[in-house]
Here is the input.
Amino acid sequence: MPFVTDPAATREDARVGGDTAERTGNEQVRLTSLAAAALGARTCGDDAAASVDGAAFPVRPQPVDVGGLLQDVVDFARALPGEHPVEAAIDPVLKALADPERIAQVVRNLVTNATKYSDPGTPITLNARREADVVEVEVCDRGIGIHPDDSERIFEKYVRGRDQLTRPAAGAGLGLYLARRMVRAHGSDLTVQPRQGGGSIFRFTLDAT
Ligand SMILES: Nc1ncnc2c1ncn2[C@@H]1O[C@H](COP(=O)(O)OP(=O)(O)OP(=O)(O)O)[C@@H](O)[C@H]1O
Ligand SMILES: [Mg+2]
Here is the structure.
């Protein structure tokens, strides 16, 4: 799939310029709400804007019931457009060190993408399990998929697929950039791999407690 960093699309979708250094104060304000929206964030607009411009990205990890947190995201995902059945395989007891609001934002972002880039009615699966010293979280879809050659590029700022499958979905190419930053601020990483049978699997881990 052709991927582009498209300042024109960025202006159109996000009403910000392509070069951070050229942004005005007003553009910063719009970027703040854009980034917050991209992540489904309600309370961290300033931090989200700061992250886009490369500033520090505060997280406050604490022992968290990851299963409960993910169950809330399942409810969120079921309310998204597209009538996607949302399947969840979440271990009953899952405790990890995490900033609960940040991690909820990451997973909400991933399930939102899953609905945007797959056909209506196709299932989305959320898996979470303990593996040795970590809790592993996966969001799987049966959508258009991501070629392995593009599996790093999609995490870059303002990068979007530009084929006919991606174009109808609104976006600025910020969601995965921010989501990866949030996960990396936890000392982990967010990665993607193709799903056997079609679609994508996004995965990250958290330190188990
Ligand atoms: N689950 C997915 N399946 C297929 N392609 C995906 C998936 N998630 C992301 N992509 C591709 O990666 C690109 C970047 O995703 P990202 O979430 O950063 O931006 P966006 O969804 O385009 O916009 P935003 O999240 O800022 O609203 C998308 O434009 C799309 O081409
Ligand atoms: Mg997105």
Remarks:
- The domain at 1-209 is CATH 3.30.565.10 (Heat Shock Protein 90).
